[in-house]
Specification:
Helices cover 17% and strands 32% of the residues. The protein is built from seven helices and 30 strands. The strands form seven sheets. It has a six-stranded antiparallel β-sheet with strand order 23-9-24-29-26-27, with no helix packed on it. Strands 10-22-11-17-14-15 form a six-stranded antiparallel β-sheet, with no helix packed on it. It is globular, with a radius of gyration of 25 Å.
Length: 482
């Protein structure tokens, strides 16, 4: 951005209008930011650290245009100790009027091919402000059931050179994609259509998911070197990923081994009403008499497997805008189980305010509401601890927990091959790697080398389907495909 002294921002207490946002949000948010300040404020550049700027909110103009809220957020950051460096806002070019404050610099976010128009809008909106892209999207994230996202590296290097040649400041998003471990992948929503993201955030970035150099990295490096007119420092070497030979998961337990006494309720309720944020939840009731018709699950979130007396009757997928299946109940007192997965929380646009998980409304069969449920929360904040019931060679139908071990003499990064395992999630040595789903594009899970150990390593898989085989392996590179 060039040398530019910015006034130190004074802390202000929240305005009366800001208080309208509700203490249920503002109180925990301010507490969290204050705690963050304890960790990061000592690392600001005005105290000798590497942090030169702090962003106020994130693309808020795509969500709303409440300036009182933005001012509250700015003031909370100042009180947390972040006011000694540059505070700024970042938005898409069209959303700049909504997401900015007059006393803060604004930067613009955009993807491949949009640089010239985006900077024209930024210059018109803030003619005296810094010309910077807060996010130049050097790739894109993957969503389950869609193709692996890649971008045009040649066009990006041309655009990078164009921005540097004009003296614009650039932040690559992402420079290193990385991983959203555990259940922390997010989701987008577009016209009520739900798009959960994969655990891999590889992003087709300059550094791949494991932090290693790609062809795009070298292309960007060449552009920067030419712009500076000098050679760049040598690149440090990195250890290559390791391969782990196929190993068996030798013991397993059915879902029933994970269930406690359950919570009786008249109608299904969301995960959150049971104090649960992530994972799975099982809803159980009895259909008293034979019936045939549509089983309609009111706004299931996000993926449900429906069982009649333990046999899978069908699935309902929010991604596909599904909410019903046809079932045929031929006997009295048939047990109905609905196992629901939280597939990832919507984290962009207005619908995130109503992002409850599980079954959020009633369940009806042949247009009659079903009541008298027992609910079993399965948050899986740690690996399922069910004692093994049998060996996997004897097997069982449906969802279950699978366990195994493998031996290593040398540790290193690897990519766990989940092909043939259907849908579920994995822990290694107690670390939650993330989700797998055979619809792709992600077919491997990144395993950081420090999470492995020389000698015996333990793996736990919670699978929504019986696997095609009971083996896994570690690969030297990720696999993306359908």
């Amino acid at each position: 951005m060039g040398p530019r002294r910015l006034p130190r921002l004074a802390s202000r207490r929240p305005s009366a209008r800001a208080a309208q946002h509700g203490a249920r949000f503002t109180t925990p948010a301010e507490r969290w930011i204050a705690r963050l300040g304890q960790e990061l404020a000592p690392l600001l550049s005005n105290r000798g650290g590497p942090i030169i700027a702090v962003q106020v909110e994130n693309e808020y103009g795509s969500f709303d245009k409440d300036k009182a809220y933005l001012a509250w957020h700015r003031d909370v950051l100042v009180r947390a100790g972040f006011g000694g460096v540059l505070l700024y806002t970042a938005d898409g070019d069209v959303q700049l009027p909504n997401g900015t404050l007059p006393d803060l610099p604004a930067v613009v976010n955009f993807g491949t091919g949009a640089a010239e128009n985006a900077f024209k809008r930024l210059a018109a909106f803030r003619p005296d402000g810094p010309m910077m892209t807060g996010e130049y999207w050097a790739g894109w994230f993957d969503q389950w059931g869609r193709r692996h996202s890649t971008t045009n590296a040649e066009r990006q290097t041309h655009e990078l050179a164009w921005m540097l040649g004009r003296g614009y400041s650039i932040n690559l998003y992402m420079f290193h994609g990385g991983t959203t471990f555990g259940f922390m992948n997010g989701a987008n929503i577009d016209n009520k259509r739900y798009f959960p993201q994969t655990s891999s955030y590889d992003y087709d970035a300059a550094l791949n998911e494991s932090g290693r150099l790609t062809a795009k990295y070298f292309a960007f490096r060449d552009v920067i070197s030419r712009h500076l007119g000098q050679a760049l420092p040598p690149i440090p070497a990195s250890q290559a990923p390791i391969m782990i030979p196929p190993f068996r998961l030798t013991v397993s337990a059915p879902l029933s081994a994970l269930l406690d006494r359950g919570v009786p309720v008249d109608r299904p309720r969301s995960m959150e009403s049971f104090g649960q944020a992530y994972g799975y939840i099982l809803y159980r009731t009895t259909i008293p008499a034979p019936a045939r018709g549509e089983l309609v699950i009111g706004d299931v979130r996000d993926y449900a497997q429906v069982y009649l007396n333990g046999a899978l009757a069908g699935t309902i997928d929010r991604r596909l805008d599904q909410d019903r299946i046809t079932i045929d109940v031929t006997s009295t007192d048939t047990r109905l189980d609905i196992l629901v997965e939280n597939s990832g929380r919507v984290n962009f646009a207005l619908p995130l305010r109503d992002e409850r998980k599980g079954i959020t409304r009633e369940v009806r069969l042949a247009d009659k509401e079903l009541t008298n449920w027992t609910v079993f929360p399965l948050p899986m904040t740690t690996a399922p601890a069910a004692a093994p019931r049998r060996t996997t060679t004897s097997g069982f139908d449906g969802v279950g927990v699978y366990r195994g071990t493998f031996q290593l003499t040398v540790t290193g990064d690897t990519f766990l091959d989940t092909r043939g395992w259907g849908k579920g999630t994995v822990w290694i040595n107690g670390h939650h790697l993330g989700r797998f789903w055979d619809i792709g594009p992600q077919q491997t899970l990144y395993v950081p080398g420090p999470w492995l150990r020389a000698g015996r390593n333990e793996i736990v898989v919670f699978s929504l389907t019986r696997p095609a085989h009971e083996t896994m392996a570690g690969l030297a590179a990720p696999v993306f495909g359908s």
